[in-house]
Each structure stands twice: as structure tokens, then as C-alpha cells.
Amino acid sequence: MKYWLFKSEPDAFSIDDLAAKPNQQEHWDGIRNYQARNFLRDEVKLGEQVFFYHSSCKQLGIAGIAEVVKESYPDHSQFDPESKYFDPKSSPDNPRWVMVDIQLKEKFSEILSLQKIKSLAGINDIGLVKKGHRLSIMPVSEVEWHILYDNSQH
DNA sequence: GCCAACGTTGGC
DNA sequence: GCCAACGTTGGC
């Protein structure tokens, strides 16, 4: 059982948007980075827990928790010429990009801010606080998960 | 809006 | 297969 952190720009898709979906469930499309894709394709498994992180916004931080409810399958937006995620080099026979479905489990009453995360003892190995924090899907160790969860307002 | 840190692309 | 140019991410 692994733990994850998924980043999203709340202007595009926030935890409240997830909460408003039928069954509070949505596919996590638009991943166009190979390292992140490999995590999604090979390692993100049914039932695993995900921190929902808000990036590039006023309130940076972890907004809540979701759970993986469907393992990787082709991201349909790569075949749609109208989509900004369209990839002309991908084909349905040999899809390049995948996505998973997640369902909201818990929205924190307060966002666990990046500032706070950085201040926590034991959180210095996580991709978020390292240089080059650009990966939109990243693993979180079990120890880190518990530290972060224990320090959130939930 | 700036800029550092990367990832990707494409010419050679 | 190298590497410069370019695009994107994301905190500040």
C-alpha cells in the first residue's frame, strides 16, 4: 500500500470541484510528464490514498484526501483534437498517456499550508520541499503521510 | 510577473 | 547521441 500526492491548480480543478462531482469522483486526466505517467501506470493502485495538493494559487498546500477508485487506463483527452491535452503522436492502439479515477475521502477544514509542511520535523525528503518540485504525481512515504495527516486540521 | 529548475524538441 | 533553444511549472 502506497501513498501519493497529486497536484492541481485549484483554478482549473480544486478539491471543491471534486466534491461537486457525482459520487465525488473524477478521472485525473492531463498528466503529460513521463515520470508522473509511469507512477500512474505502474504503481498507483486501487484503494491507495492520495493527498490533494493545491498549487499555483493563494493558499498553497494540502486540501484533503482522496482514494484511488480505478487503476490506470488511457487518458481519452490525448485523442481529442479539441482538447488542450491532445497529443498527435499518440494513438488508441498505442496510447501514450494514462489516468486514474479518484474519489474524495476527506476535505480538511483548513488547508495544510506549504509553509507549515516545510516547518515539520521529518518532512524534508518529500518532493514538495526539495528543489525542482515539479512532479505533479509523487509518492509519499508512510511516515510522511502520518506526520502530514496528524498536522492537518481534519 | 519574475525567474530558477527542469523536461522536451530538433538540428547537426 | 549531444546540446542549445524553447516551453512549462510553480513558488515567491
Mean pLDDT: 92
| CATH superfamily caption | ph1033 like domains
What's the shape?
globular
Q: In terms of per-residue confidence, which ranges show pLDDT below 50 for 5 or more consecutive residues?
A: none
| Tally of helical runs | 4
N to C succession of SSEs:
EHEHEEEHEH
N→C terminal distance:
22 Å
According to CATH, what is the topology?
A: ph1033 like fold
Q: From the coordinates shown, what is the CATH architecture?
A: Roll
Please give the CATH class: Alpha Beta
Strand order of the largest sheet: 2-5-4-3-1-6
Domains counted in the coordinates: how many? 1
Main sheet attributes: strand count, strand direction, barrel closure: 6 strands, mixed
Query: Helix share of residues?
Result: 10-25%
Give me the secondary-structure category.
alpha+beta
Instruction: Work out the number of β strands.
Output: 6
Give the C-alpha Rg: 15 Å
